[in-house]
From TrEMBL:
Protein name per UniProt: 2-oxoadipate dioxygenase/decarboxylase
Presence of the UniProt keyword Ion transport in the record: no
Enzymatic class: oxidoreductase
Cofactor(s) required for function per UniProt: Fe(2+)
Region (Disordered): 404-423
EC code: 1.13.11.93
Keyword Iron in annotation: yes
Gene3D superfamilies: Uncharacterised protein PF07063, DUF1338
Alphabetical list of SMART domains matching this protein: DUF1338
């Protein structure tokens, strides 16, 4: 019998092979990521594995897919449920970029520490907001709804196997092989000709809308390896002649601890596609919808840490508004140095970052009683803090990646009121809860507190609000 985590690992590996065949530059990205990771490991030793073993980092992937309707979202949740992956977080990208992005998203991933250590595969999954009148008017909306209702993304056999795997948490060897075959095939790029006029009508709204609703299938939009030095990877990919987007999205590269998530990508490639004209003839064309993303993960920030992070983004925007774009990174580094603690110890003591806490067994006895607050326990060497890796995504960064790979801004009627979408909307569509990532990190931290000797459990919280 094949357990869920082995199914997940096999699916991620097969998906990676398939995507590498379809997008050869992705294979180059994976190879360069591996080389950078090996170099960082040689240079920094065990410190390079502070945010995950090199085995985990090298095998780590996140994918991205797009669906059109609540029913399609429910079905894809069943497929990922078979792999022990749960919807975590809600991301509304509709107002986070200048380009029209009519999508809301969640991310399917494992949630238990042991499952994440075994294989942390994630899939950022976006759903088209068909009912939002800012993007789809009264003429286009019913046509789009009818088109989406007439397609089948996931065959019944795949969904039946997925339900069995989720219920029993395993499949027989034969059923596992069939499930993997069908699941990978569901995310391949279809060779079916695309209705050129229909695709163009959606593309005028948004290239993302056309990629979702202009075709009769779904596909992997990008597949992302994890790298330990994303700035070095960016430099090496550029030297190889691969066109990268203009920047690394997310926090700046600075002298302090890595936090949250940094992402970049090579630009969307013109891929050959068959296009059907109004007269029924089929010609060879090209579409730019898929790109190669790479990520570097840091420490998860607490609720107070995220409030501070958002405030710092606003400061960077404000201070760099009248400066050349090339100076933005320098501005961001200065803001980070001004407001964020320069060490992991400081992040933990001020309650800005998530860590697990462990008693220091060989602390020299000094006859004193341990302090009651977390900062004092850390300062006095009673506890050590181990960082918790950020496993999720950033709406502004995701939108920045998408926007950087679009050739047109599309159209959005900002004079109309947008439709309401939230995590409850997605939960109702899927028939399963959308988990709060903060709650998951808090549980992991609090479990470590519960394992401490009673005398070393902090009774006073670290500094509130994470103010500078």
């Amino acid at each position: 019998m094949i357990e869920q985590w082995r199914l997940r690992a096999a699916f991620a590996e097969r998906l990676s092979r398939m995507y590498g065949r379809e997008v050869p530059a992705y294979t180059t990205l994976v190879d360069v990521s591996r080389e950078v990771n090996e170099d960082v490991l040689r240079k920094r030793g065990t410190d390079a594995e502070r945010l995950g073993s090199i085995g985990r980092v090298t095998a780590e992937r996140h994918g991205a897919i797009r669906v059109g309707t609540p029913e399609e979202l429910r079905q894809v949740a069943r497929v990922f449920g078979a792999l022990g992956m749960h919807p975590v977080g809600f991301y509304d990208l509709r107002d986070t970029a200048a380009s029209a992005l009519p999508i809301v998203s969640t991310a399917f991933r494992p949630v238990d520490e042991e499952e994440l250590a075994r294989n942390p595969f994630r899939v950022f999954t976006s759903m088209l907001t068909v009912s939002d009148p800012r993007f789809f008017d009264d003429d286009l909306r019913p046509r789009l709804t009818a088109f989406l209702a007439g397609r089948e993304l996931f065959p019944p056999e795949l969904l039946a196997l997925a339900d069995r795997a989720e219920a029993e948490r395993e499949l027989s060897d034969a059923d596992a092989e069939r499930f993997l075959e069908l699941a990978v095939r569901a995310f391949e790029l279809s060779a079916e000709p695309i209705d050129e006029d229909w695709y163009a009508s959606l593309e005028r709204v948004s290239a993302v809308a056309a990629d979702i609703g202009g075709v009769r299938s779904t596909h992997i939009n990008h597949l992302t390896p994890r790298v330990l030095d994303i700035d070095e990877l960016y430099r090496r990919m550029t030297e190889l002649g691969i066109e990268m987007i203009d920047t690394v999205q997310g926090p700046p590269h600075w002298a302090g601890p890595d936090v949250l998530l940094r992402q970049t990508s090579f630009r969307a490639l013109a891929e050959p596609r068959a296009l059907r004209a109004a007269d029924g003839s089929v010609r060879r064309g090209a579409l730019r919808v898929r790109f190669g993303e790479v990520e570097a993960r840091g420490i998860a920030l607490t609720r107070d840490g995220r409030v501070l992070y958002d405030r710092l983004l606003g400061l960077v925007d404000e201070r760099s508004a009248s400066r050349p774009a090339a100076e933005r990174d320098a501005v961001a580094r200065a803001v980070w140095a001004e407001h964020l603690p320069p060490t992991e110890h400081g992040l933990a003591a001020r309650g800005l970052g998530f860590f697990t806490y462990h008693a220091v067994p060989d602390r020299p006895a000094d006859g004193g009683r341990p302090p009651a607050d977390l900062g004092g326990l850390l300062d006095g060497g009673w506890l050590r803090a181990e960082p918790i890796v950020y496993e999720d995504f950033l709406p502004r960064s995701a939108a920045g990646i998408f926007q950087s790979n679009l050739s047109d801004t599309g159209s959005r009627n900002s004079g109309r009121e947008g439709s309401a979408y939230d995590s409850d909307t997605l939960a109702e569509a899927m028939g399963r809860d959308v988990l709060d990532p903060f709650v998951l990190y808090e549980r992991q931290r609090d479990r470590s507190f519960a394992l401490l000797p009673r005398a070393l459990r902090p009774t006073r919280a670290p500094l509130p609000k994470g103010a500078s």
